[in-house]
Amino acid sequence: MTGTVLAAPRPVRAPARDEASGAWTAGYTVAISGDEPVFAGHYPDFPIFPGVCVMECVRRAAETAPPPGTGELRLAAVESTRFLAAVHPGDELTIDVTWSPRGEAWRCAAKVATDRGPAASVRLRYQQEATPC
């Protein structure tokens, strides 16, 4: 496996706030091209988009539109990841993210799907960057 992920998230649902929970939700799509460098070695006769690349698509989607008013956020942890199905060249990922406040941190929970159904669930934790004095 070589290279980085070329695919970029495209917003399909603008961030919206749930007043009751304080959570923010948004939706994105990511087109997985057969030209992704990772397909060269993963696997030559049966290309599969690696799980770490799915996680990278989620991270990029999440960071496209963090909750308003949060300032700079940095990825602090991958809390959990579950891969449910393979992602192949030509698939379009649908990524639904939900940002929830967690004390001084924010949790970003994402559901990832292809047209065949659920592909992954990912939970990321972000910390607010300290502002210099």
TrEMBL record:
Q: Which Pfam families match?
A: ApeI-like
Keywords noted in UniProt: Lyase
**EC number of the protein:** 4.2.1.59
TM helices/strands, residue ranges = none
Give every ApeI dehydratase-like domain span: 28-105
A single Gene Ontology molecular function, please?
(3R)-hydroxyacyl-[acyl-carrier-protein] dehydratase activity
Matches recorded under SUPFAM superfamilies: Thioesterase/thiol ester dehydrase-isomerase
Presence of the UniProt keyword Transferase in the record: no
Protein's name according to its UniProt entry? 3-hydroxyacyl-[acyl-carrier-protein] dehydratase
Q: Which organism is it from?
A: Streptomyces griseoloalbus
